[in-house]
Amino acid sequence: MANLLASILLPTYNRAYCLASVIDSILRQTYSTFELLIVDDGSTDATANLIADKYAGERRIRYHRRPNGGVSAARNTAIELAKGEVLVFSDSDDVWLQHKLMMQMATFVQFPDVNLVWTDVSAVDPSGKVLHERYTRVCYPAWHDRPIDEVFDRSQDLYAACPLLPPGFEDRRVYVGNIFPTMIVGTLINMPTVAVRSRVIGQAGNFNETMVSGGDYDFNLRACSTGPVAFIDVPTVLYRIGAADQLTRPSLHADQAQNWFRAVTPFLEGGRIPAGLTRQRLRDILAGKYGWLGMAELLCGNRRAARAALWQSLRRSPRQAKRWMYLLATFFPSAVEESLRTAYRRLKPRAA
Fold first, then answer.
1. Is residue 346 domain-resident?
2. Domain boundaries, position 317
């Protein structure tokens, strides 16, 4: 395993205030055969000085500066520069726990057919306070679609996959299988914990640089379509949430919903929907996603786009009182919309 080179891809933009803690956590990893590629996406703060002053003597770090183009463009630049057999993604505000890289590299060795490995995360606020110790199942509703033993084909005790781990990981498992059908429902994957074999890029392609948000899902969906993946059921990253400079902020929800359709449509049009998804199941999924898009557009004030999306949802699943109410709201000013919401909340207990 020690001969398997990991290329850690760290895009950053104006994160000098927290970047050192991320880099230091990577340098403390118990698996040391790696290169760290820091791609500065045109930062205007002290990022360049930080790297030069603090890490100039660190042979495993390579720093590359490029014009600002967004996180997907920065990740693609890092992919082009990488030399490793495994590409490991990191965000520039998330701290790694000490054994993260060892677990993932050992999993690749233990399961040669696996193309992608990710882990759970612990959600923290900007001050570092832990909000959710195991955040993956809180963050992504698709985890509740089926029990974990049905999502994956097989599992193994973590120590069997990674015997060099110290005590403390008892009863933790590695789950392996083809999760592409579930990924159509919605993502299961935290991008800041993802590691992929570099050969996957040739099959799945790079990140879509036109997607402001949702590019993670698009990439991971394509990666999962190439073969088996593995989930290590252990938090290995302190995942920062609630900061204003993140792409998960509510103002981008409509963009995320639109990009779900952009990611999935090539598979729908190409006839590549897995056999496990029935026609009715796919209809239900589309009803839910159009509903999500409609609600997101309505919250952004885009009433015409909200109306079109909500109608598509109701065409596929008409027995949705709440969405009928929101569809009606798109024809009225925002003040009337709020009155309709209030009326719905009052009537709902009576209907129950």
1. yes
2. 251-351
